[in-house]
Design brief:
single chain; alpha+beta; about 30% strand; globular; binds zinc ion
Length: about 300
Amino acid sequence: MPVLDLPFTHAAHDRAAHRRAEPNLVEDLLKQPGTRVLVLHGSDVATSGRGIALFAPDDVAHVAVRAHLFLGEADGAAYLAAVLVEEEPRPDLDVDWAGMRTLDVPDLEQGLAVEAIALAEWHAAQTHCPRCGAATEVTQGGWVQHCPVEDVNHFPRTEPAVIMAITDADDRLLLARGPHSGPGRRSVLAGFVEPGEGLEQAVARETWEEVGVVVDPESIEYRGSQSWPFPASLMMGFRARATTTRIVRQEDEIAEAGWFSRDDVATALATGDLRVFGRTSIARFLIEEWFGAPLDG
Ligand SMILES: [Zn+2]
């Protein structure tokens, strides 16, 4: 079975990684009127109409920028992200702002946005050398943090996480809610892969730890992956069959959990007892694949 067709996985641009080492790459691109600049404030990207707002460098030369990131090239144009100083109010650029949960734009722009957000989140989270604590210098179009004391380069990391649709012998789906999610905000289970662990092991371990359910290791099936940079995550989606149904919650991680038939899900969506996460999330796609139809909750 082919993997799921997920949002943020249709990048239509060339990251042009070979250009990152060009001296003064960002400075040179900012002098070229054909360069296109998307603007980030925190985890939100500036949008305009039905797409991302793309500026000529001169049009955003007046805004306070913490860093410029080189995203790559498409159709002969180079793309930069201008990461605004988050502590400053948003400048008046006559734009709207959207985060990844609500970003409904064409493939090229979606790919540029997730790359920009992920890279910007790295710089927001790490400003100093993890080895010696010295302040790092951002180089190579934002793809390297250089430690000037040790003369070493640090690169952005991606942390693997698993997210899994677990079903029982009656094909009911396991849905759970974390203690910080609002009422009805149930979803499939997810968790970070631990050091020294494979993906399938993480699926089985997280399911056991969070709800006390045993997964048949032979049934674990990969369904696709999606970048979700909060923080630095690569969400890897699976489905698997449980061999037990009794739920024993890990109480600090899971506020409620239960098995849902398709009828249960349809009813809960209609009454508002179930509200699933947004159209861009892999969780929704895993649930919809099991459900067999789009969820309009
Ligand atoms: Zn260092």
